[in-house]
């Protein structure tokens, strides 16, 4: 199997698992996996597809600017520029963007603060942090409708080979050195969002 | 594959995905997809079936009045008249009606106001609205037990080729130019309902 | 296919769908489908099995007293006596018992009142009630540990060929003339429980 | 089929069912099943794998100290020491550890009390307790980052061949004489956690 076919299958597998969780409502969400470093190219989800389906047009190859490589009638996802920032600024190999109810609610509740910090939760180890007092902070940025402006704002928080950023009332982007790490960051973040909201809902009951 | 077989498969695919989400409780819900324009005919779910099952009697062909085309022992869904309004008044190609807990709760909480309006959410782009301040309003109508009365009330809000209407304590009907657009409207609406309810539940906690 | 094989497959199909929803936590729940009327015999789930699995020992045939017909190492479900009441007192053909979080919460919140009544919800039509003001009442009985006592209490509310009874902090039993109707009663009830709880949770927010 | 292959399949089956419920977020969770008694050996999940996938490297054989038996490039799960305590101190045959939102919330809400006790719920019978007034207590221990310290603390509550322990802001470990009993303890506990939280959320509404 070629590298391209291998990466395609890795991304298709993530798409399948996340689609089963209904994490792509209304054709939202987009996924990317790096193919080459010099020059950078990556597979990204084609725009406007129903992600509960699997076809050989689910992904297309784009270059370091997010432009399609070679002739194709497929359009890269509108938010490909966010993945561009990640692959250009770090050694990340995979980047995942999804909308969930809980990540949207967290982004709105903590949007004015500009970030949310988690601490004292075992699942924080999924971020590679093994210290008992380890903290993990997820920035929350404004959801600029103009994608290049959004990408520029987003890029300010892309500082490591793995990470996660919330876009307010929009969704999360999580990335990692490979598909497994990106998925791990995504799932740990969603778990923390859901846990945080559920615990918060008992604040007035317990006091 | 004939046009009929193609449309049947599109509708069956939507039915399969929505059934997995348990969006057809108690045999509720009904789905329709247009086959012909002049005169109008469409496939609609047969009445009273368990939609977790797939058979060659899941759908039947009806005309512009919702009457079966040709001999059949199948009965069209009781609410076929709502789909009739959509196909007769617009260029919609597909129309979906489902009951979910969240769309019922929204319809009751905002029923007296007669509608609910969403704004400032990324998923609003699923309605084809790309402006940062775009709003999307979903009317909420009374659930008349008499279906022709319900259909007449419903028809007042059927003004575009794609849209969504809530029926109070009943469910949602979402439609679009084709199956993908109808499903996109449906999923975006359900996402917004769930998001809105979850955020609302934190109002008293955060203040 | 023999009648026995046909009924087995109907019950296995319901078991498969409900297991996917995780409605059999901790091997709880039991299902029954009638095979014969004179004398009464029915298939019932064998005790203590993991219902996410499918084997040819999932069900066994029992008589009108709930005793196994013929030699078998299988034990009928401990609550077979409840199904016995239903098949002996009515023309029901299928009876389903499941534990869900929402039916347990409803049974506790309304247990002292002894019942919960639903009105003004479209899904009430699943109970065969088409009137706009139709009401459907589900009795809530005490969960006697002694099964014959529980069955005697339960029997008082078994009055029609289709119905539903809640056992407090235990679960629901829903039945109907055939498998489809029993499942319809079950799903409509669970939908109403979830709807009722979600709406109730907004009472203090909206006032 | 050899005993090893039989046990492997039992554990793989549990992994498949729990993965479908998304009970292994961010590669968390680990599962163990005993192979031999004298000396003790057991299969345990390999570290860092995505548990939605099935491979022949999902589990590896370890000895009574949790060290791999024979040459392998696989690493046993970091928390293998907890399973070691269970297999060494009791006749348990299977031990399951998962992170869920609800078990984390319960562990935090009742962490200061050091345990949570359930009573008056039918599902308590899943613990083999058939008395009407039966109680089941789940201890909640501190989540020491140092695994040997955690294991020593954990061991204090490992007193029976089947049981369950919560680790605060971490997850639950449930075990039993065989795979079915361990899964039954796990599912009953999760059901009770979810039930308890949902009922608690209505406290302020009903009073």
Automatic annotation (TrEMBL), chains A, B, C, D:
SMART domains: Aldolase_II. Pathway: Amino-acid biosynthesis; L-methionine biosynthesis via salvage pathway; L-methionine from S-methyl-5-thio-alpha-D-ribose 1-phosphate: step 2/6. It holds the Pfam family Aldolase_II. Zn(2+) binds at residues 97, 99. GO terms for cellular component: cytoplasm. It comes from the Bacteria. The keyword Metal-binding applies. Keywords: Amino-acid biosynthesis, Lyase, Metal-binding, Methionine biosynthesis, Zinc. GO terms for molecular function: methylthioribulose 1-phosphate dehydratase activity; zinc ion binding. One of its GO terms (biological process) is L-methionine salvage from methylthioadenosine. Residues 9-197 form the Class II aldolase/adducin N-terminal domain. Binds 1 zinc ion per subunit. SUPFAM superfamilies: AraD/HMP-PK domain-like (SSF53639). Its cofactor is Zn(2+). InterPro entries: Aldolase_II/adducin_N, Aldolase_II/adducin_N_sf, MethylthioRu-1-P_deHdtase_MtnB. Its EC number is 4.2.1.109. It catalyses: 5-(methylsulfanyl)-D-ribulose 1-phosphate = 5-methylsulfanyl-2,3-dioxopentyl phosphate + H2O. Catalyzes the dehydration of methylthioribulose-1-phosphate (MTRu-1-P) into 2,3-diketo-5-methylthiopentyl-1-phosphate (DK-MTP-1-P). This is Methylthioribulose-1-phosphate dehydratase. The gene is mtnB.
């Amino acid at each position: 199997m070629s590298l391209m076919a291998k990466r395609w299958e890795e991304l298709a597998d993530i798409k399948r698992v996340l689609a089963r969780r209904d994490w792509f409502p209304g054709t939202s969400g987009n996924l990317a996996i790096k193919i080459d470093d010099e020059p950078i190219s990556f597979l990204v989800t084609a725009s406007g597809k129903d992600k509960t389906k699997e076809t050989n047009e689910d992904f297309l190859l784009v270059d370091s600017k997010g432009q399609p490589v070679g002739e194709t009638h497929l359009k890269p996802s509108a938010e490909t520029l966010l993945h561009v920032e990640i692959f250009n600024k770090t050694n990340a190999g995979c980047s995942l963007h999804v909308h969930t109810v809980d990540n949207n609610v967290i982004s709105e509740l903590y949007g004015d603060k500009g970030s949310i910090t988690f601490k004292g939760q075992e699942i924080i180890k999924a971020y590679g942090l093994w210290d008992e007092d380890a903290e993990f902070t997820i920035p929350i940025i404004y959801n600029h409708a103009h994608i290049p402006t959004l990408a520029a704002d987003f890029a300010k928080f892309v500082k490591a080979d793995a990470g996660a950023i919330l876009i307010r009332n929009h969704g999360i982007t999580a990335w990692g050195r490979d598909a497994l790490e990106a998925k791990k960051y995504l799932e740990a973040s969603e778990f923390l969002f859901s846990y945080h909201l559920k615990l918060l809902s008992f604040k007035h009951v317990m006091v």
